[in-house]
């Protein structure tokens, strides 16, 4: 995985941080946060917090005591130990797009399918820049709603050997994810051994979204209870589009984000002290003329940089950013908006990056060509954010002695020894002259990306998996599908 050793870009002054600190304390104390689950209300009540119906008025000092119980950094294991990741510190882990109900393949926009889900999973496996295929890479609309999570988790567990995200639609889905992870990490010694393994080191990281403003709904809380109780990592994420789910000003959105994230993190620590959590952020704005969500905006970039600074202030790993865009197709807008979000993602040193590849049309679409373009961007930024090694050899004084004044360095020994690896070579970009580019078909970025993803799928080879474990996973999926009525 990528380790970002470059300096963090922090834009909040001490005075600004103090003002935000006073804001979230007031919002949490005077307005409160709704938790639509009686178990959560009971835990807060038992901890001495004021509860009125579903609203909890939280003591900020109590919240900070709970937050302090969460680990600053933690590991998430993959079934291939070489693919395991470290969440927190200087480490950045990247996962693919999450949640779209539609797919774009070239000029065709259509309902997403289970085949698409498997294809994106395979593509994620083939690129080292991605640490995970993610979770709900797309909604497979051709499979039954009540049991599709089984097929998705099975695909993530078998088609990749990287870490995967858990399903969070309900407590039932979360329990199935945990059971399947226990089978996968049982190492041939049974599910109980696997459960002990994943409780010792989490094997999933799951997205728990707040129903902003200031409400945690029952289905997400059901999943949170399951995952936190099993010591699986959860990403507590306010879902904020400024102007719709929060006030229009960035400071107000940040105060709300802190309130929501910290309240969810406090609940995880009440469920199981020390359970791994991530300070989540999904922060952008709407178009005030049309009301549509917008992504890759200057405001979202500013919010992203602030989020990193805020999470470090609380000593928590954080999630934000990705290759976000409002564009409907893989075009120039898709490219520059994705970079407008990915660049501050790196500048902030984001620890868990969702939506790193494939996001289109405000998250409604998982795009094959966009997936390839985003992987290219992530690779290039990983290269750009790798500090220079400056030593005597890299100063190349001997090359100057050899070439002299007015010469060129193309044939110099220093160049010949390094020309294969001296510069990053993008796999998607074209640097051909016009005539050669035309002879090769005159393809634009989207067309080249289309060929690349098809070639990648054709060359895909599944990672090895013990056949006994595969059979046990298949048996579990078949049995649970029948029990769920599908």
Description:
The chain has 486 residues and is α/β, with parallel strands linked by helices. It has a domain at 2-11 and 66-384: TIM Barrel. The chain is built from 18 helices and 19 strands. It has helices at residues 14-31, 38-46, 60-67, 114-126, 148-159, 171-184, 191-200, 218-229, 250-271, 298-313, 332-348, 368-384, 392-395, 397-403, 413-418, 434-439, 445-459, 467-483; strands at residues 2-3, 33-35, 50-52, 55-57, 74-76, 85-87, 91-94, 102-105, 108-111, 205-210, 215-216, 233-242, 277-280, 282-286, 293-294, 318-319, 352-353, 359-360, 365-367. The strands form five sheets. Strands 10, 12, 13, 14, 15 and 16 form a six-stranded mixed beta sheet that branches. It has a four-stranded mixed beta sheet with strand order 3-4-2-11. It has a four-stranded mixed beta sheet with strand order 9-8-19-18. Strand 14 and strand 15 form a beta hairpin. Helix 3 (60-67) packs across helix 9 (250-271), helix 5 packs parallel to helix 6 (171-184) and helix 10 (298-313) runs parallel beside helix 11 (332-348). The longest helix has 22 residues, at 250-271. The protein is globular. It starts with a strand and ends with a helix.
